[in-house]
Specification:
Strand content: 25-35%
Order of helices and strands: EEEEEEHHEEEEHHEEH
Number of domains: 1
Distance between the termini: 60 Å
Largest sheet: 5 strands, antiparallel
Shape: globular
Strand order of the largest sheet: 10-1-2-11-12
Number of strands: 12
CATH superfamily: Aminohydrolase, N-terminal nucleophile (Ntn) domain
């Protein structure tokens, strides 16, 4: 299982992913799901991956081979072209493997988040589906998730605003979103890879890998839980003093005791 999130704000991008992979209930492994492609001063891409590990590794290997050869992500002219480039590799891996996987009733599962910037354009964030088609993050929907997304989404829905959320705040939202998911689903786990990309960095300048015992992660977790309990205590009480509403609450026996 996997959980990855990308957040786009007016100041840049925050990308975060867990590192747990499961081959069965008796085997839990760790594998990095964040991959960076950088030509300093020219372009920078961060790709987060979820789905079948063998498939995502194949996609990333092909992208890396192209990049080292000066092709693919190394030479696309726009970020949309970059998203299509990644999608093309997903399709090519599907052409190699999908038939044989589905013959054995194994689904072709690949989802990717692609964030970063090409010099001359604003930073962008895309999701790439298993069919290779891209979905762009927008100002009205300023974050994208892949993998086990449901537990970490509420805090993002309530908090992230493209024009108001700073990068430092987005980092906290991402960490709480990951931690909430890890708390509710043991198939998602640390270390957390965390990258902060400010507009026009065109390089990896702010990166952390948070282990389960990292002091910053532990402090954010304990502070969040403490403040959440405090906030619940400060909420107004629900008033139950009025007459019952006209709803069916169940079966009532009106006979007096002893009848």
């Amino acid at each position: 299982m996997t959980y990855c999130v990308g957040i786009r704000t007016q100041q840049g991008l925050v990308m975060a992913s867990d590192s747990r992979t499961n081959s069965g209930i008796d085997q839990v492994d760790v594998c990095r799901k964040m991959h960076n492609f950088v030509a300093p001063g020219e372009r920078m891409f961060t790709i987060l991956s979820s789905g079948s590990l063998s498939l995502t590794q194949s996609v990333m290997t092909r992208l890396e081979q192209e990049f080292r050869a000066g092709d693919g992500l190394a030479k696309v002219e726009t970020f949309y072209d970059a998203a299509r480039c990644v999608g093309r590799q997903v399709r090519e891996v599907a052409a190699l493997d999908r038939e044989f996987m589905e013959r054995d009733h194994i689904s072709f599962a690949v989802n990717l988040l692609v964030g970063g910037q090409i010099r001359g354009e604003a930073p962008q964030l895309y999701m790439i589906y298993a069919q290779g088609n891209p979905l762009r993050c927008t100002r009205s929907s300023p974050f994208l998730q892949i993998g086990e997304s449901k537990y970490g989404r509420p805090i993002l829905d309530r908090g992230i605003r493209f024009s108001e959320t700073t990068l430092d705040q987005a980092v906290k939202y991402a960490v709480i979103s990951l931690d909430s998911t890890m708390r509710s689903n043991v198939a998602v786990g640390p270390p957390i890879d965390l990258l902060v990309y400010a507009n026009d960095d065109l390089a990896v300048k702010r990166y952390r890998r948070l282990t389960a015992t990292d002091p910053d992660l532990m402090e954010i977790r304990s502070h969040w839980e403490r403040e959440l309990r405090h906030a619940i205590g400060m909420l107004p009480q629900i008033d139950f003093s009025g007459p019952p509403q006209d709803v069916t609450l169940g079966v009532t026996n009106s006979r007096a005791a002893g009848d």
